[in-house]
Amino acid sequence: MPSAVRDLELDLDAFEGPFDLLLTLILKDQLEPAEIDIASIVVAFVEHLTARDRIDLDACGEFLVLIAALLEIKARQLFPEEDAELSELEPEEAAEELARRLAEYRRMKEAATWLRERLADGRERFFRLGPAPLAPRSERRLAPQDPVLLADALRGLAVPPPKVSLSHMALRFPPVAQFLERFRAVLRRRRVFDFDGEVAGLSRVEQAVAFLALLELRKSGEIALAQAAPFAPIRVSRDETERTHAWTVRSA
Amino acid sequence: MDRPLRLISADTIVGTPIDALARTVEALLVVASQPLTVDELVAATEDDPERVETALGLLRERYAEGRSGIVLERVSGGYAFRASREAAEACGRLFERPVERGLSQAALETLAIVAYMGPVSRPEIARVRGVAADSAVASLVERGLVAEAGRESGPGGAVRYRVTPLFERVFGLDTLAELPRLDDLGGETDAIRERLLAVAEARAS
Prior knowledge:
The complex is a heterodimer. Chain A is mainly alpha-helical. Chain A has helices at 19-27, 38-50, 57-78, 83-87, 91-121, 147-158, 176-189, 195-199, 204-219, 240-251, and strands spanning 9-11, 16-18, 192-194, 223-227, 234-238. A 3-stranded antiparallel β-sheet of chain A has the order 3-5-4. A two-stranded antiparallel sheet of chain A has the order 1-2. The radius of gyration of chain A is 51 Å and the shape is elongated. Chain B has 2 domains: 10-94, Arc Repressor Mutant, subunit A; 105-199, Winged helix-like DNA-binding domain superfamily/Winged helix DNA-binding domain (Arc Repressor Mutant, subunit A). In chain B, 48% of the residues lie in helices and 12% in strands. In chain B, the strands form 2 sheets. Chain B has a 3-stranded antiparallel β-sheet. Chain B has a two-stranded antiparallel ribbon with strand order 1-2.
């Protein structure tokens, strides 16, 4: 059925085409209702009506229903979180709030008018425009330098640096065997000796190697180790029992 | 004293005579495609700020409206040359002004909101105008009149916008403080309130 309302041709900022299509697009979420200037739709419809000889009451009714629905959709979308807030207001407060907003908007409209007039007045304002390739500004200014001094400084940099000695980095490990012999010799003289006393005066590395020798001797069953408490002196003794036992086994 | 008596003008006491400095400043302003601040001119000329101001004073006199085809004006916090009003018509025949051409009412209203209330986000603009501002803001950004200026605080805060130096230049403003006071614009809150209340009462009765 042809309808004066649905076929209404619109020419808005955000949309151009029949009213029918506009509604369809909004219902399908393909057009933001907030983008639509509803007042211009009303103006377009009124112009459409005046172009005719008689008033089409059906069309007016249909239009009212549609435009009211559109207004409601738009209003709800614009102030989604404010529904509750505003509905709690007394009518006078609501009017106050509305008046405040309208006044704010009116001021901005006036400001826009001022800008437009300024622009019209500035029709005479022509100036050079373009990207301004300003030279990068140096952050630090160096004091003027004597070229000879600079050359000397550069010459100093050109000399290859002396080789860094790494000799102190190498750890010298005395052979473990050296301490094996040493401890065996001590044990030949004495039945028991104190490890800490024996290695006192040696370097850390030598002490560590001496300790490894101690473990070697213990592993081979040549000595017995005793320590009263952690960090107490380590007592080293000839392991008589072990050896006797080994001899017994071997000779059996 | 065997030194010959000489007349020394104040201009020549420090460094180069002020005329030479004025010529240098003039050259810098001709080459520049955006307003130059006094600081920038001081850095470029390596001269004294007071002397640069004096040189600018000389140039403003020389390039006042009506005296030359070009006019030196104070705009957007700096100094820049523009064509004289006399020459504007001829300029219009040869040159386009894409920045301000065809600004719609929606764009102008949005521009006014950003200029007065900025930095301001799109939802805030929509709140004032009652219409979404997305396309208007996009067109203003494209023209270079409006630029992003951070985000609202909080996670996912909306992008805020402010007007650019180009805005000041297009509208011939030295600073945003030169915009007319909002109080002087459409301050008819009382009248609007009374009308609204009248309507409400009519409906209630």
